[in-house]
Amino acid sequence: MTHEILLQPGEVLYHQGDTNDCGYILESGEIVLFATMDGRRVDTERRGPGSILGELSILTGKPRAVSVEAVTPARLFRIPADQILQRFGKLDPVLRACIETSISFTATFSQRASNDQGEAPLAQSTLRNSEELIALFELERDMIEGLQNGEFRMHYQPIVHLEDGQIAGFEALMRWIHPTQGFIPPDRFITVAEMTDSISKLTDFALIETCAALARMRALNPATQPLFASINISGADMGRPDFIDFLSHTLDLNGLTPEDVKLEVTETALVPDSAHAETNLKRLKDFGCGLSIDDFGTGYSNLAYLKELPLTALKIDRAFAGDAHANAVSHSIVKMLIGLAQELDVDIVAEGLETEEDVNTLRRLGCGLAQGYFFDKPLTEDAFVDAYILPRNRQRNVA
Ligand code: C2E
Ligand code: CA
Ligand code: CA
């Protein structure tokens, strides 16, 4: 079925009461929406280019509420209903509930305006998962309060050279001990924070804390090779107009340089969805801090796009790295990813190595850097300093 529809003046696109399987975008021309009430035609609204049509009946699943007729020659683009519904289904659940409530209110209101009045009908609840939504709002509120109340901490997991086991740097990982619920896994609260603006507050906290911790470690043992700090950031941070300035300022405050820090971002978060994100990615190249792709291999890997990025490392996801010794497919994927990193001339870091077998396999495959419980778990700053920074331990070979 063609997506382009041309209407001449007076031609009808659809009639009130028709069933529907699509919406439309009016590309050019003008149309009029009209309803038939008591046998009379009532024109409700004219619309020009850039309007969307037929969306209401798709979202409510009801027949067309009005008819649509061309006023001037009109060109329309047809969008299948399932494409609209799929997008609607992916919306933030709170936003979706707000839209569903407004749609249902509008539909009831216009129906009652044209029918006789009586007792107000009982509207269907649009919140199918109200407990879940309340929990989400509570978690977000608690997160903001928790940041102010010092409930958040950063932990540091060593990243080591696989060849000799010497420490190269660390990944900063956030920890939140909720006053009543106890430990909340970062996967859970980061996902909630990413739905809202709170993620920028968490990222700022991670940057400020980690840079300060790295500066304290340097001060404790200035004689040694500098370690790098790898910090997780979200796609939304990349779109912040002030992000690189903030990072630069935080580094300055702590006497650090961009080379001391690597930003870890997942593949999907690296596809710029705004002009700011694109500008930031370009600025990162000149700025000089590292950029690692996190969980590499689990995203949609647009290999051509990788070459465009100011990349300095790929991190092989635990699902492959921690499985390569036992599973032939994982083994091949890891081998391929190591080859790809060499091709792109970037570092490669294996994540989630837990056993000696994991370590030996990755070392044999030529992987340069690694982290995982085999070496150490994420540690508090004190424990990290004690194990890796103080002079007596600094040469500790972790492999
Ligand atoms: P990630 O960035 O992939 O971090 C690695 C995760 O693997 C961490 O989980 C780490 O504790 C865990 N891990 C490390 N070695 C091993 C191992 O040998 N075996 C196993 N099973 N796990 C290992 P964690 O700390 O629970 O963090 C989970 C995710 O939460 C992170 O995944 C990251 O996506 C997110 N996250 C954590 N901290 C931050 C943060 O400060 N900012 C942002 N934006 N996201 C964060
Ligand atoms: Ca990470
Ligand atoms: Ca990862």
How would you portray this structure in words?
The protein is an alpha/beta fold. It folds into 2 domains: 3-126, Jelly Rolls, CATH 2.60.120; 134-393, EAL domain (TIM Barrel, Alpha-Beta Barrel). It is 41% helix and 24% strand. The chain is built from 15 helices and 17 strands. The protein has helices at 55-60, 81-89, 93-114, 130-148, 186-194, 198-220, 235-238, 243-253, 275-287, 303-306, 318-321, 328-344, 356-364, 381-389, 391-394; strands at residues 4-7, 12-14, 22-28, 31-37, 40-47, 52-53, 67-70, 74-80, 152-161, 167-178, 182-184, 228-232, 261-266, 290-296, 313-316, 347-350, 369-370. An 8-stranded mixed β-barrel has the order 9-10-12-13-14-15-16-17, surrounded by 4 helices. Strands 1-8-3-6 form a 4-stranded antiparallel beta sheet. A hairpin with a 3-residue loop joins strand 10 (167-178) and strand 11. Helix 4 (130-148) packs parallel to helix 6 (198-220), helix 5 (186-194) packs across helix 6 (198-220) and helix 6 runs parallel beside helix 8. The longest helix has 23 residues, at 198-220. The chain is elongated, with a radius of gyration of 28 Å.
